[in-house]
Amino acid sequence: MKKAQDRQKSYADRHRREIEFKEGDWVYLKVAATKGKDRFGKVGKIGVRYIGLYQIEEKIGKVAYRLIMPEIRLHKVFHVSMLRRHVPDPDTIDPERIEELTENLTYPEGVLEVEERRIRKLKKREISQIQVFWGKQNRKVTTWEDEESFRVKYPQFFTISKEDEVGPSTFGRIWDEFS
Q1: Sheet containing 110-121: order of strands
Q2: Burial level of 174, CB count in 10 A (0-12/13-18/19+)?
Q3: Please, which of 33, 57, 78, 117 could form a disulfide with 82 given CB 3.0 to 4.6 Å?
Q4: Which InterPro entries would you find in this protein's record (predicted)?
């Protein structure tokens, strides 16, 4: 019997993972009991499953954490199974940077580097494109842009080579404020 229990335990442990948080991490709190669900809104399929965004104050024992919470009628120490890690979305608008938004509700982009050039062949013409590394909210995004329109928007990015005044442009870094 003990051998069978150990074997089943080893099978179950393969799918389990240790969840640990550090002080200062942000977590959501799982709403478990039906009384708790009634307290926080609708019940059922569209009911609330997690509430808040709380910061971890300290670790209590091996699997319990104390959260920094407002003064409500809830205990502040929770088992790790009741917590879910908050993963910030880089596309959300940061309230502290709201004054930097442009007219179309995006942040100004910074060109970090131009890496490659390619020529797209259409039926009757060819379009020269360049690969641009952008800095968007502390992350790098790569896009292919038409060289002609990019030259108009960022003329300071291009220099003409001395050997051939009409030849291809020499690429380089313009600024690196986002990395």
Answers
A1: 110-121, 126-136, 139-146
A2: middle
A3: 78
A4: SH3_Tf2-1
Domain made up of 19-85: CATH architecture? Roll (2.30)
d(CA 64, CA 59): 6
Label residue 177 by pLDDT band (50, 70, 90). very low
Q: Which residues pair with 54 in a beta bridge?
A: 27
Among candidates 65, 64, 34, 37, which has minimal Cα distance to 51?
A: 37
Q: Please identify which residue in the block is written with the tokens 């990019």.
A: 150
Distance CA 85, CA 48 (A): 16
φ, ψ (nearest 5 deg) of residue 9: -65, -40
Task: Evaluate whether 141 touches 131 at the Cβ level (below 8 Å).
Answer: no
Distance CA 31, CA 36 (A): 6
The residue assigned the tokens 């069978």 is 4
Name 98's Cβ contacts closer than 8 Å, sequence gap at least 6: none
Distance CA 66, CA 84 (A): 14
Q: What is the pLDDT of residues 64-104, one digit of tens each?
A: 999 998 887 778 899 998 899 988 776 665 555 555 566 66
